[in-house]
Amino acid sequence: MKRPLTVLCWNFEKNGGGDPAKRRTGHELLASLDPHLVLRQEMPGADARGNETVYEVEDVLGLRGWLGPRSCTAVFADPAVLQPLREWPDTGPMWVLPPTALTFRYRPAGREALPLNVLSYHLNYASPTLRTIEAEWLTTWADKWWPRPDGRTVQLPALAGGDNNSYPSARLETDLELPLLKAIKDKPHRAHRSYVAQYGTRLMHTRPDEALRTAGMEDTARHWATTHHGSPSALARTSDGSPTHGPDARIDRIYITETLLPTVRGVDVIEVPRDLSDHHIVRLTLDPDTLAGLLNEQAHTAMPLNTHGTKAA
Fold this sequence. Notes:
Blueprint: E1 5-11, H1 14-17, H2 20-32, E2 37-41, H3 48-61, E3 64-67, E4 73-77, E5 82-87, E6 100-106, E7 116-122, H4 128-138, E8 145-147, E9 153-155, E10 158-163, H5 187-192, E11 194-196, E12 202-204, H6 207-214, E13 217-219, H7 220-227, E14 252-257, E15 264-270, E16 281-286, H8 288-301, E17 304-305
Parallel strand pairs: 1-2, 7-10
Antiparallel strand pairs: 1-16, 2-4, 3-4, 5-6, 6-7, 8-9, 9-17, 10-14, 11-12, 13-14, 15-16
Protein name: Endonuclease
Region (Disordered): 226-249
InterPro entries: Endo/exonu/phosph_ase_sf
């Protein structure tokens, strides 16, 4: 049986806080999970001295890396499995912490298969309004089109993971409860994690999740829990409760477009010691044969655009 395709998503606090030993420990932990794809957030200073830190992390992970605009996010991938076809440096006008976005070919699927878009992102910390806008920009990677040999283009699937700084909108019984506003002791943080709804009522911020799911990008943890009897390991906290930020929360999530949902073989959260980072690691595993089959099938059945940019009849 082939090894599942393993995707890890981690907001490693301040990339180890400038401590090379701590940074190495964090990435050795990631390497021990034997990933094919790593979506990293918080990469400050990684562009210093000609991206020296990126190459250091590449060496620890055994993966090739791409650093996003302004060293906010990064993607690391196994080039034997994921062949880069395109980078997307222009990620939109509204980002405080721009994502890293690439288009990859999944090599086991072959050269005729549909590529897929991959993103590592970090939504804004302080502004619910801007977070919502950033999530809306994320949905554009579920609406990218790729040229076919016949001159037409087809819509690409997408995989995106990151720190949402906000909550899931559609929760299961085994999912974490939304915090009460008063449970967040730090009053500025109450403003950061909530928004004004109808009649002036403040609600906890779930709008990024709502935007992504409306665009056909599903929370893989929720999907796995839905199909596997609640699966508490999938819906575990990704950030610990604190006196300022409130209770445990599942703010780090990996989304995929609906057509890729049959490929999911597991989602869980790897606990990280608090002295290493303030976030835990989200792990998604995909079935390699199902993924290859779907990407080939979609290459031929996805609704194409004609050369004028309109949907073909």
